[in-house]
Amino acid sequence: MGGAALNARMLALGLVDEVFVTIAPKIQNGRGGVTMFEGVAFPADALAHLALKSVYSHESELYLRYRTT
User: Fold this and answer.
1) Taking Cα atoms as reference points, which of 28, 19, 31 lies closest to residue 68?
2) Does the predicted model carry a pTM greater than 0.85?
3) C-alpha dihedral (34, 22, 25, 31), degrees to nearest 10
4) DSSP readout, 38-55?
C-alpha cells in the first residue's frame, strides 16, 4: 500500500494533521490519472473536513495548506 491508498487510509484513521494542495493551470485528460486519495468513499456523515490555514501564490499556481478539523 502506498501513495493515494496510503493517504486515504491515514486520513480515515485520523492520522493526518495537515493537507497541502497545489492548484496549477495544467489539464490532463484520460482515465487512470493520479489522485491524492483513492479507495472506498467516506460516508456522507463521515467526510473529512479541512480548514484553510494558508495560501501562497506564485505565478499562476496556488499553494494551499489545510489543517484537519
Assistant:
1) 19
2) no
3) 10
4) -SSPPPGGG---EEEEEE
Query: pLDDT tens for residues 29-48?
Result: 777 767 778 877 778 888 88
Which stretches of the chain drop beneath a pLDDT of 70?
1, 33
* Residue found by looking up cell 490555514 in the block: 53
Q: Characterize the bridge pairing of strands 50-58 and 18-23.
A: unpaired
Domain boundaries defined on the chain: 17-28+45-69
Of the candidates 30, 68, 27, the one whose C-alpha atom is nearest the C-alpha of residue 51 is 68
Q: Under the phi-then-psi rule, with left for phi > 0, alpha for psi from -120 to 50, and beta for the rest, what region is 3?
A: left
